[in-house]
């Protein structure tokens, strides 16, 4: 992980030397797409989601389109949610047509963080759709092309963060994933599979974005390596977490536990409050904590401000 980080940092330096990416002071608008990780309305256990923090610290205007539960496309992963292709992009284009989001392309950056719902429960991991990781990844990369065709030029693609710490924690599995108690072997297999999907999808999206970047004239495309950033927070929590409780990367600030023997019953829920919450990497079994979000926000803000960033590679 660490040497990958170094490699990303080196590529960033090279990228800056080659004059790619966005320049300091260039970006005034941030347009976000994605799922609950990026939703600024339905923020779950967080009071503020990362795009709002980023907009504040980078001094840009936020146009938020990401919605909880979203997948890339309902063609691939049919969920009754506001997907990127059937809901978020159409709304953006509608507002673009009537002037609400008619933004100067050179001053605007577009972000996408999607994929967890495409690999998760009722989807790839359980065979709930007729697609593969290749389809969901191609779909996400096609978000760049679709916006480019409408005039957009600056893109930050946030890859899928590690799911292994989440899937590996049977004790905090029941707020969203309401399923019967699983034995530890099944839990372990799911965790391994989630990890494989996240890593494969991220390797694919990197190649696909690089290829696309070479074809889209005038576009600036960045890959933000959420996976490595979250892995680093997991491996070195004291560099990132600052709450008043013992640092915790395997549990969550909000948990519910079903009776341990698997018998049906009412889950027992626990909420960590106040300054203790900033000791956690996860808010619940699916979502990053607010402090993890502040870190994401800080890093994305630095990319938007045109600075070299350890987790970011500009392909063009
Ligand atoms: C979804 O399927 C419809 C009907 O086949 C098609 O028109 C549309 O382009 C597809 N959308 C995506 C994102 O692939
Ligand atoms: C533009 O379209 C959006 C989405 O349909 C709508 O909410 C908004 O009110 C419209 N604005 C104007 C000025 O027509
Ligand atoms: C942790 O640091 C963030 C800035 O990253 C700050 O906003 C927050 O208040 C800090 N939390 C605590 C409990 O000190």
Structure keywords:
six-stranded mixed beta sheet, single chain, 12% strand, globular, alpha/beta, two-stranded antiparallel ribbon, binds 2-acetamido-2-deoxy-beta-D-glucopyranose, 316 residues, 9 helices
Task: Describe the overall structure.
The chain has 316 residues and is α/β, with parallel strands linked by helices. The chain is built from nine helices and eight strands. The chain has helices spanning 2-17, 50-58, 84-97, 116-119, 133-149, 164-167, 184-213, 226-235, 290-304; strands at 29-34, 61-64, 108-113, 154-158, 220-224, 254-257, 268-271, 312-314. Helix 2 (50-58) links the parallel strand 1 (29-34) and strand 2. The longest helix has 30 residues, at 184-213. Residues 73, 75, 85 line the site of one 2-acetamido-2-deoxy-beta-D-glucopyranose.
Helix share, percent: 25-40%
Bound molecules: 2-acetamido-2-deoxy-beta-D-glucopyranose
The counted number of beta strands is 8
Radius of gyration using CA atoms only: 19 Å
The secondary-structure class comes to alpha/beta
Which whole number gives the mean pLDDT? 84
Instruction: Give the H and E element order.
Output: HEHEHEHHEHHEHEEHE
Shape descriptor reads: globular
User: Ranges with pLDDT <50 over ≥5 residues?
Assistant: 1-8, 12-19, 164-181
| Largest sheet report | 6 strands, mixed
Q: What is the tally of helical segments?
A: 9
């Amino acid at each position: 992980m660490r040497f990958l980080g170094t490699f990303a940092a080196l590529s960033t330096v090279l990228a800056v030397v080659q004059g790619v990416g966005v320049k300091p002071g260039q970006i005034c608008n941030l347009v976000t797409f994605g799922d609950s990780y990026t939703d600024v309305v339905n923020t779950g256990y967080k009071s503020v989601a990362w795009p709002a923090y980023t907009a504040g610290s980078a001094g840009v205007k936020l146009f938020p389109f990401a919605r909880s539960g979203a997948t890339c496309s309902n063609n691939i992963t049919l969920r009754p949610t506001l997907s990127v292709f059937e809901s978020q992009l159409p709304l953006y284009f509608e507002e673009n047509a009537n002037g609400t989001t008619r933004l100067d392309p050179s001053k605007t950056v577009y972000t996408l963080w999607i994929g967890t719902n495409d690999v998760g429960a009722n989807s790839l991991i359980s065979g709930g759709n007729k697609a593969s990781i290749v389809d969901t990844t191609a779909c996400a990369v096609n978000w760049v092309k679709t916006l480019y065709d409408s005039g957009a030029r600056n893109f930050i693609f946030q890859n899928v963060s590690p799911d292994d710490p989440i899937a590996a924690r049977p004790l905090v599995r029941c707020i969203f994933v309401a399923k019967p108690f699983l034995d530890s072997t099944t839990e372990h297999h799911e965790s391994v599979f989630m990890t494989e999907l996240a890593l494969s999808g991220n390797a694919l999206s990197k190649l696909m974005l690089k290829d696309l970047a070479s074809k889209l004239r005038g576009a600036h495309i960045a890959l933000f390596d959420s996976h490595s950033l979250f892995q680093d927070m997991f491996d070195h929590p004291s560099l990132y977490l600052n709450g008043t409780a013992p640092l915790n990367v395997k549990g969550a600030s909000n948990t519910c536990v079903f009776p341990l023997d698997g018998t049906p019953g009412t889950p027992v829920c626990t909420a960590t409050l106040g300054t203790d919450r900033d000791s956690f990497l996860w808010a619940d079994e699916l979502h990053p904590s607010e402090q993890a979000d502040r870190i994401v926000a800080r890093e994305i803000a630095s990319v938007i401000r045109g600075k070299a960033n350890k987790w970011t590679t500009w392909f063009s």
